[in-house]
Structures are given as C-alpha cells and as structure tokens.
Amino acid sequence: MAENRPPDSSRRSERSRRAIYDAALGLVGEVGYGKTTIEAIAARAGVGKQTIYRWWPSRAAVLLEAFIDLGNRAAQDAGEPAAGFPDTGDLAADLKLVLRATVDELNDPAFEAPTRALAAEGIVDPELGAQFVRKLLDPSLQLYVTRLRAAQEAGQVRAGIDPRIALELLVAPLTHRWLLRTLPLTHAYADAIVDYALHGLATP
To answer: Is the pLDDT of residue 56 over 60?
Structure first.
C-alpha cells in the first residue's frame, strides 16, 4: 500500500522561487525593466502576486536576488569556486584573464539587462543601491584587493599603494565604456587597461 505523504511545502516553495527568478530575468531581457512589473513576473511564473510580495518588497528586490542566483549558477556550471581570483604568479596575466571574463559577462545579454536595471534603480533607491554594492560589487572588488596585496607581498607592485584605489584603475574604465555604450568592449581593450594600469603613462 502506497504511503500517503503530505505535500513538501519547501520543494513547492523552491520551485516557485526558481520560476519567479526566471520570470524576472526573462522579462527584463525581453521588455526592459520599466515593463517588468510584479504582475508580469507573477503571471509568467504562474504564481499569485501575493506570493512575490510575501518574499520580496519590490520588483527590484526580486531582480537583485534573481541576478545573484544567476551568477552563482553560472559559476557552478563552469565548475568555478564560489569565490577566487587566479594567482599564477604573473599579475598581468591574472588581471587580463579576469578583465576579459568581465568583458564577456558585460556583453552577455543575460547579464547585461539586469545589471543595467539594477545599476539604474540603485541610483534612485538608496537602499537597493546599498544592497547592490554590498551583495554584488563589494565581494568581487575584494577579490582584486586580495590579489593585489599578494602582488605587494611578492614585490610585484609598490608596497605603498592602496589596493582599493588601484583596483579602480582596472574596473572603472570597463564600467565607464559599458555604461556609455560609446565604444565596444573587447578583450584587447581589457588587456590595454591592465598594461596602462601596471606600467603607467609616463616614459621611464
């Protein structure tokens, strides 16, 4: 005789949460953030909007959590550790590898649309902006800090530099070009940023 088990609410909740993530990310990519409403997310996910409001206070909060989950899944699919920065002993090569990967991510529509939406919303919503920085940006930037400090200890960069300022020489140009959409983001551009940052502009 088959055992009658009550429905597993945790599995049902996880399926609903995953459907909401996918719906939010899909809508932002297809129709833009402006048309990605709670109602639209709920309809695509096949849940009631009350379910969404029970877990998140706004569409931006849904998108932020969905985007973090997307990044985690992408890293798992690629077999990458949750956090890390290559340290082969060659600082320039390591930085170029990471910046090239960043270029690929920023050019990927699956990542670009939600990133732009969250960056823009974070400007008008200080609380969301703070979460965006704390949950997404700071962990990534800290990896640069750790790698640059290792380079300091190895004598590859000056002992007196502030790694937090130094990393901005690397990531800010990419962000600037990506935000303005004036020129394409390429691997060659990423490599040039590393060369300029490490070797400076002045003649020896």
So the answer is: yes
